[in-house]
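Why should sequence recovery work at all? Because a backbone constrains its sequence more than one might expect. Tight turns favour small or flexible residues, buried strands favour hydrophobic ones, and helices have their own preferences. The token representation captures these environments compactly. In the example below, the structure is given first.
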């Protein structure tokens, strides 16, 4: 575990592993004009219940970094360092090592130093095999390079970046469907060639590095980014659009990942009914200048992530037919978004 953590440390990290506080040399910020610190904190929700059910803990750390660090890149910030917190009913050293190794591996992939953490044993509050994980990260961005709704212009292209699966949101619904169907996580899932538990633990895709590279290449032509987490596609896109603008996200431009289709079939519900809960195959979205859309898609795909255009930012009057819009979300007075049409290869 210590070796994995130390592998994330560059010359900026001082003090090594095991101190009361992590130390990070911020002198590099002196060369910036007006550095703004960006911070984010999160966990992975009830996905940990599946990891506990099949005793597989080496990917939860990737989920945690995806939820925390990938939120920082939304404003255009480069992650600097992260800390983690694990609460458990009883400390099993190998289990904790597996979790932390996963966190460290994902930190290395996103250029983030894992500078500290805490493992707390809570007998009587948590069961012996129960645990939860959380983390917090800090990044930095130049004040005049912050991405957000104020940069978005009518006519901008909305680019979708494919998810690797369910990521870390909507697992209460997943677990409800699995339980009601009488499926055990150790059962073989014929659609995936692995057990149900292994299929559902597919790690959250990490977007930080390819998106920072996209920003470095396109510069001011990248206007806004959004991480598709709780609330789904429409709610999270609406958060990063200016008031008075709207987007129709065209379902026909992609087919939701197999895992969503299989779960919907088991539940006897439509994919559309889960749009406010699951990412349905889109993990991130980028709003870029219209004339840079093709270049952005090509660069993202060169990094190994499928990408495609799903819509265009509009500022004319909202249509009064064709479905309801999601307007703003999570306290943000943003734009309006709805999903229209039918998913590729599948009727509504």
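From this structural description, the recovered sequence reads:
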């Amino acid at each position: 575990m210590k070796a994995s953590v130390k592998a994330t440390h560059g010359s900026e990290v001082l003090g090594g592993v095991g101190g009361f506080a992590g130390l990070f040399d911020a002198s590099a910020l002196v060369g910036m004009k007006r550095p703004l610190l960006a911070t984010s904190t999160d966990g992975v929700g009830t996905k940990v219940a599946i990891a506990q059910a099949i005793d597989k803990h080496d990917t939860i750390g990737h989920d945690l970094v995806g939820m925390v660090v990938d939120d920082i890149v939304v404003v255009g910030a480069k992650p600097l360092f992260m800390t983690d917190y694990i609460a458990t009913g009883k400390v099993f050293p190998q289990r904790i090592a597996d979790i932390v190794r996963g966190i460290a591996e994902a930190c290395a992939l996103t250029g983030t130093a894992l500078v500290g953490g805490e493992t707390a044993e809570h007998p009587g509050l948590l069961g012996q095999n129960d645990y939860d994980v959380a983390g917090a990260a800090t990044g930095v961005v130049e004040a005049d390079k912050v991405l957000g709704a104020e940069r978005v212009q009518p006519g901008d292209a909305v680019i979708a970046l494919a998810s690797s699966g369910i990521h870390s949101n909507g697992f209460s619904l997943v677990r409800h469907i699995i339980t009601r169907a009488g499926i055990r996580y150790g059962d073989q899932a014929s659609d995936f060639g692995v057990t149900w538990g292994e299929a559902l633990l597919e790690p959250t895709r990490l977007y930080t590095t390819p998106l920072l590279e996209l920003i470095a290449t396109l510069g001011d032509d990248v206007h806004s980014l959004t991480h598709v987490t709780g609330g789904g596609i429409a709610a999270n896109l609406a958060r990063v659009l200016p008031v008075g603008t709207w987007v129709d996200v065209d379902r026909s431009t992609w087919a939701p990942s197999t895992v969503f289709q299989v779960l919907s079939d088991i539940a006897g519900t439509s994919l559309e009914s889960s749009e406010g809960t699951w990412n349905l195959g889109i993990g991130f979205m980028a709003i870029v200048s219209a004339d840079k859309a093709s270049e952005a898609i090509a660069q993202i795909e060169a990094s190994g992530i499928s990408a495609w255009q799903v819509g265009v930012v509009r500022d004319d009057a909202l249509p009064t037919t064709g479905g309801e819009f999601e307007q703003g979300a999570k306290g943000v007075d943003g734009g309006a978004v709805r999903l229209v049409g039918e998913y590729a290869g599948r009727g509504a």
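A few observations help interpret the result. DSSP finds ten helices and 15 strands in the chain.
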